Structures are given as C-alpha cells and as structure tokens.
C-alpha cells in the first residue's frame, strides 16, 4: 500500500517508520514514535499511538484488527520478532517476547513481560509488572500461569503466524479498494489456505 494512502501522523517532529516490506491497512492509525519492522502486518482499525512512549513491531510480527498500542512517556512498548497479537488486544507499556501470542481482546499492562513462545489466552488481563514465563499459557482475569505449552501448541502458533506473514505479502500484491457486487456470482470461488485449522480441531483430529 503506497505510503500516501496511510493514516500516518507526525507529532513533535517524530514521524512513524514503516518498512517497505510491511503491510499497514489504510484504516490503521500511526502517530509519532512508531516503528513497524520488516514483514509486519497491521490490520484494519489498529491504533499505534506513539505520542508518549515508543512503539515497536519487530520483524514478522502482526497486530490485528482494532488492536491498540500505547505507553507512558519514556517507555517502549515492544512486540518482538514473530509476535502475534490477536484481534482487539490492548498493549500498554509492555514487552511481548519473540514468537509469543496474545489472544483476542486480551489486555497487557505496563511493565508486564510475556516470555518467548508464551501464549496469553483470549480476554485475559495481564497485570502491570507481571511476568509470563517462556513457553507457558496464561489465562484469566487477572491472568495466571496455567501450564507449560506442548510442542504441538507452539508449532500451531508458529504456523498461524506464518499465515499472517503470507497475508502481508498477499495484501501488498493484491489488496485493492473496490465497489461491492450487487449479487453473488455463480460458482463464487473461496479463498483457499490449506492446512490452517483451529487448535481445538487439530487436537481432535489426532484423537
């Protein structure tokens, strides 16, 4: 998507940075001290408001629809390489470790650290200053560490993030604004992405 189509705002002379290989949806808003790294995906309606602290998406990370990133002055809010931030999550002054996953509508508060390849469940609330160990699952309000993740669960997360990295490339290559059709065409094709299923289905298939 050409930079001129993005909703990007400078403040106090600080201009957001978006790597040319990243995709930022035109309805997302980037303000001030924001750094979007190579191969990142930023979804529709996401808000990265770097008017206080610095916001960083490292290589291959995704920040999905309606997510919010913000932080106090003098802080960095960071999603490390291959981090995966689900729809509607809020990150405030925290650090999300490499290959970690934050579930839909979860909230991660100031000075919290989510370890490498950890998973925070959907709708969880991670308190300020909390530490989620690497390769563990945290869930609840407030979030508590539930158990260690299996190799299968971590592999599922890696595959899901790879799907979003592929989506970045698909969006850069084919996403265009258009007018809707007025009727469903005969034999309407589907988007085909083989091998991607919810974790619960993958576990059921293995018995």
UniProtKB/TrEMBL annotation:
Pfam families hit by this protein: Hexapep
Signal peptide location: none
Source taxon at top rank: Bacteria
Entries under PANTHER family matching the protein: DYNACTIN SUBUNIT P25 (PTHR13061), GAMMA CARBONIC ANHYDRASE-LIKE 1, MITOCHONDRIAL-RELATED (PTHR13061:SF29)
Protein name: Phenylacetic acid degradation protein
Protein source organism: Oryzomicrobium terrae
Gene name of this polypeptide: paaY
């Amino acid at each position: 998507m050409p930079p001129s189509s993005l909703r990007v705002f400078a403040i106090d002379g600080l201009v957001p940075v978006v790597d040319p290989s990243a995709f930022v949806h035109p309805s997302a808003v980037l303000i001030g001290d924001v750094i979007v790294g190579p191969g990142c995906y930023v979804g529709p309606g996401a808000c990265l408001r770097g008017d206080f602290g610095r916001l960083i998406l490292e290589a291959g990370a995704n920040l999905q629809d309606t997510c919010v990133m913000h932080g106090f002055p003098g802080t960095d809010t960071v999603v490390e390489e291959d981090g995966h931030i689900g729809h509607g999550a809020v990150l405030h002054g925290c650090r999300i470790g490499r290959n970690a996953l934050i579930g839909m509508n979860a909230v991660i508060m100031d000075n919290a650290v989510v370890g490498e390849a950890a998973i925070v469940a959907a709708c969880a609330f991670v308190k300020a200053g909390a530490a989620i160990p690497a390769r563990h699952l945290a869930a609840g309000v407030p979030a508590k560490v539930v158990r260690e993740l299996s190799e299968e669960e971590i592999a599922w997360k890696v595959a899901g993030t790879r799907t979003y990295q592929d989506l970045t490339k698909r969006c850069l290559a084919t996403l265009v604004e258009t007018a809707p059709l007025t009727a469903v065409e005969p034999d309407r094709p589907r988007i085909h992405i083989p091998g991607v299923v919810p974790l619960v289905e993958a576990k059921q298939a293995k018995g």
